[in-house]
Amino acid sequence: MLAETDVVIVGGGLAGLAAARRLHRAGVPWRLVEAGDRLGGRVATDMVDGYLIDRGFQVLNTAYPRLGTLLDTNRLNLGYFTSGVLVRKGDKLLRMVNPLREPTGGPGTALAGVGSLLDRLRFAALATGCATLPPSRLLAAPETSTETALRRAGLSDAIIEELLRPFLSGVLLDRELATSSHVLAMVLRSFARGRIGLPAEGMAALPRAIAAPLPADLLDLDTPVAEVAPGRVRTQAGDIRCRAVVVAVDPPAASALLPALATVRMHSYTTYYHSAAEPPLAEPILLIDGDRREIVANTVVLSNATATYAPAGRHLIATSVVGPTAPPEPTIRAELTRLYGRSTADWTHLTTVAVPQALPAAPPPQGRLRKPVALGECLFVAGDHRDSPSIQGALTSGWRAAGAVLDELRAG
Fold this sequence. Notes:
alpha/beta, FAD/NAD(P)-binding domain, Polyamine Oxidase, Chain A, domain 2, four-stranded mixed β-sheet, 22 strands
């Protein structure tokens, strides 16, 4: 027998940590077991030759509602990106920004040669509606795919293919734009209302901050779970008896532990990290490919946003490709020469990070982005596959699962 407690949380990613925080606040005895040697799940940072290398390009959106429940984002010392994108079209770099965040860039955005002026006005109206309408209204709207929603908004092939498909594919990891329009609405809402940044100590600072108030002796690392059942979690170190179990691991692992769960298809991507003595851009802004080559989803100089990502005198560039197949690094380097409009011959390839189980696919119907977390017999499940595929979804699902546990324990 390893231990006894009221609630066992399986998985130390964002969902599991959010569940632990809520149970801890409620004074309910709990224990968290994590198979790996660190907390954070898919949100992780490694140090490589003095550079902060996140496990794939990730960012933090300050508009995520659940963040404020769990931490003070000011303590993360965020460095921020420009609220907009650069679009490479032929020999031009076209700058398109959120005029609410970058008022001086509004006229240039209106005149940018991506789609037509009517396209840009229609997209602005779509984003404004998502930002200002209550989420309940957005999630009550008829649901379709993201691509269909964009076309129903009157947007042309030009703006979809040159701007929205490359941009959204990097966010949703879905080049087909088959993701639910309800997810799209929440994505546009968060981008319009929040700022996008990186913590000074890398994205791993987020799970560390969420876990900070939790007693370290209740967090069991290097503890793989072989089986869960009502009232019991079986680990390599022995059984833990409990009243409830929250399974907060990635979807494939959750389905293995809870066979009743439907299989969740996962999206994948790969991020290539390069260093350079001089930044190819002076601005912390996402660069996307409007030439429809469909190789690179986005590229960005991370150290322009957060200088601590690179050693003094150097700069860190992250370039992401969506899908299970990663081109060889020389192909990416050639694309970067074209996208940035300057030689990359003197750049150093630091590492390539493949994330094969990055985000759950979310095709319609997703409804109100709230799948059940209570499975019966005091078994519960959490993760961004139960809410929206995002950091917000992971945190919210963990919070919801803990709330469902509390209701069950009080009722029992």
